[in-house]
Structures are given as C-alpha cells and as structure tokens.
Sequence to fold (296 residues):
Amino acid sequence: MERSNTLFDDEFLKKLEYLNLISKQMVPGHLHGEHRSKKKTNSGIEFSDYREYVSGEDTRNVDWRTFLRLDKLLLRTFEEEADLPIYIFIDSSASMDYGNPSKFDHARKIAAAMCYVGLMNQDRVNLIGFNSGVDKQLSARRGKSQVWNTFQFLEAMTTRGSTSMVRSFKGFFSSRRRRGLVVVISDFLDPSGFERAFDMLRHYRQDLFAVHLYETEEREPKLPDEVLLKDAELGTIERVKITPSLMDSYRELFDSHSESIEAYCKKNGWGYINTSTETPFEDLVLQVFRQGRFLK
Fold:
C-alpha cells in the first residue's frame, strides 16, 4: 500500500520485523495477546479455587467427591485469561515539534513499533493523539491486517496547541473503558504538571508505561548571553539573561522533573523510561520490552 511520506520506509519496516522476532524470544510461547489478566469464572481452562454452592446454581461444577467426603456442596471455580487492551497516547502538542528529527517523529515511530508488535500478537491496540484534549483516536484494532491502518493514522497526525493530560485522560476514560495498559509517549511539558493526570489513571485502575522523550539540547541548551525565549505552546516571549548559575538551576529543575515522574511511576508499580531523541527507537522499544509490562 502506498504511504504518504517516508516516516515508515522500508528500512523502518525491517526494524519492525526484527523487533517482532526479538519480542517472541523475550517472551517464549506468547501467541494470543501479550497483555493478559485473570478473571474468575464458573467455567474455564485453569482450576482456581472452591466456593460454596448457592441454591439454584448450575451443578455441573459441583465437586461431588468433596460432597461425599465432607457432606458439603462446593463449586469449582476457574481462571479465564482475558486479553487487556493497550491504549497508546501520543503527545501531539506544539512542544513536540522540536529537534531534528523531532520529538514528534520519534514518538510516532515508537508508537508504530509498539502497535506492530501488539497487532502481530493479537493484542487490542488503541491509538490516541492528545494535546489540550483528545485530538484524534483510532479505536481498538487487532491482527496483522490492521498494521497499515495504524501507520496511516500516525502519518496523518500533526502537532498543535498546548498540553493537558488531565483533560485528555478525562475525555477518553470518562467513557467506559476496559482496564488495560496505558502507554504515554510525551515530553511531559504540561503546565499543570503530571500528578493530577496520573492520579486519574489510578482512579480508573489503569496500568501505565510512561515514555519520557526529550531533545538533548533541551537539557543542555547552547545559548548566547542574552536571548528571547518563545514558549512553543503558549506563544509568550520573554527576554532572558543567561548566566552559569541560571543554567545550573535549569538543569537541576529539568532533572528533578524527570525524577519526580519516575518516582511516581515506581511508587505505583508502573513503568518509566527517560530518553533523548538520539536513542535509536528500536533500542528504546527493547528497553520497554525488558521491563516486562508491554509483553506478558
């Protein structure tokens, strides 16, 4: 199928095949949807536990041997595997359109790689572009045949506006959504911070994997003694005198912000990766796999 640009060229596709192959080696035997949970049912494949029989229930799963021995009616319960959806949120705010290649292009390649591996292994993948709210979304897709649809969706995305994870998560999860894995790929330059948004994910009982992207120059900017700085999202301009102490404070603040996000994720048993756009996307995706949350 002809594609609109070269973001996902032949070289990129070869890397996806490699990642898919590696993912199978990392999680041997995964074939039917990587991210799974267990739910108790009255029928299934794997025995789980016993519970007392309630009058009027189906007697097919009564343990008659236990009844003969204890004179007590007990039902056998089973665990049924249920594939969990994967919700991939890509930050499409204006601040992502920075760098060469831009953070946004890097984010879309990471998302494409995750989609590819998920779809090839029968996970239900949802794609959501967000800025000041949910901007674009591609509802759940499953199976190899949906790969090109996800690529077309990602290629058509553009950057604009400011960032509000709170409004984005609220807008998406206020409709009833199944519990699953939320992957957020962003520079996390949200004026309101990240805590309220992450609290919301905890409220909706979602799992999270945060991919924190930055451009190297954002942490180590090379600036003259005096500059006019323009906010990429708000459009405001401010004249700033650059001093060594100011640069030291800036780097400390930058690192503190990253450490705060990482600490919050660690506290809640969530995944977190902090990386620059200089890291090849395939190396980053492998790091995600190794943390054991995307592949299960």
